[in-house]
């Protein structure tokens, strides 16, 4: 992480909901090739910030720059093809569809890698090899033909990661990748994220400090919509202001 080139930058980014500032003048700088964690107590503005970065929300003021380009106000379907993918906190899979079909659909979508959405479904087999590669990357190659509904929770989250990777994103945004997981799945997810983070930039929201400490090169702590502290994990976790902020929340 020697390069100082920011892949993602926000400048005075602000989102108000009827006068309430959920995100307030946030200046975030994410270096290319880094894993950058966003943490903070409930309601700190993490999800709102993710929504601003991916175009699901439009900022009230301020800007978002990706690779030096101003992407403020672009729609999600304009932002995704630039190389920003997101995995969601809530599982969004089709229970009856097989794992391979999920990947083929992701690859064939307008924002997907091939952008060959005009191809008839019968020609989706061109994506078969890539689908298997992606499933292999997340350790699900042997489940390719089973319906997503039959997967265990941790496997569903791994499938969602594979779907996000179908874009071959430069920037991958992970919203609580270990939420609701037991310790074994958490450790498996840490290993998986480490593997897929190589060669790309990852911004991660997670409440689990073991996950953050294991993965993040840099941590930004949000509180009440503002940046409270920022730095390497070991520095941030001993910061008095951060400790105080967390003592007031459910996630100590
Ligand atoms: N659409 C909305 N309308 C009004 N208020 C909102 C809206 N979305 C979020 N908020 C408020 O903005 C604040 C930040 O919410 P946000 O979901 O971004 O926090 P968070 O850090 O992701 O919290 P959590 O850790 O619980 O997911 C909260 O007070 C929330 O109630």
Automatic annotation (TrEMBL):
Keywords: ATP-binding, Nucleotide-binding, Transport. CDD domains: ABC_Mj1267_LivG_branched. One of its GO terms (cellular component) is plasma membrane. It holds the Pfam family BCA_ABC_TP_C. GO terms for molecular function: ATP binding; ATP hydrolysis activity. Residues 8-249 form the ABC transporter domain. PROSITE patterns: ABC_TRANSPORTER_1, ABC_TRANSPORTER_2. SMART domains: AAA. InterPro entries: AAA+_ATPase, ABC_AA/LPS_Transport, ABC_transporter-like_ATP-bd, ABC_transporter-like_CS, BCA_ABC_TP_C, P-loop_NTPase. It comes from the Bacteria. This is Amino acid ABC transporter ATP-binding protein. The lineage of its organism: Bacteria, Bacillati, Actinomycetota, Actinomycetes, Micrococcales.
């Amino acid at each position: 992480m020697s390069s100082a080139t920011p892949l993602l930058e926000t400048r005075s980014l602000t989102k108000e909901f009827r006068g309430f500032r959920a995100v307030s003048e946030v200046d975030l700088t994410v270096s290319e090739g880094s894993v950058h964690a966003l943490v903070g107590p409930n309601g700190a503005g993490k999800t709102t910030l993710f929504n601003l970065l991916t175009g699901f929300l439009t900022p009230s003021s301020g800007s978002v720059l990706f690779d030096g380009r101003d992407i403020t106000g672009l729609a999600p379907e304009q932002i995704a093809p630039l190389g920003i993918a997101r995995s969601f906190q809530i599982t969004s899979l089709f229970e009856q569809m097989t794992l391979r079909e999920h990947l083929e659909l992701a690859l064939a979508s307008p924002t997907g890698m091939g952008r060959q959405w005009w191809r008839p479904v019968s020609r989706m087999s061109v994506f078969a090899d890539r689908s298997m590669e992606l499933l292999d990357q997340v350790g699900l190659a042997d489940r390719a033909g089973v319906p997503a509904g039959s997967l265990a929770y941790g496997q569903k989250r791994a499938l969602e990661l594979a779907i996000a990777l179908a874009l071959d994103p430069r920037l991958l945004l992970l919203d609580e990748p270990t939420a609701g997981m037991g310790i074994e799945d958490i450790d498996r997810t840490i290993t998986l994220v480490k593997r897929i983070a190589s060669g790309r930039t990852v911004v991660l929201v997670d409440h689990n400090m073991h996950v953050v400490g294991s993965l993040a090169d840099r941590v930004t702590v949000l509180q009440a919509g503002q940046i409270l502290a920022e730095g390497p994990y070991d520095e941030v976790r001993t910061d008095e202001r951060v400790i105080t902020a967390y003592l007031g929340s459910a996630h100590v």
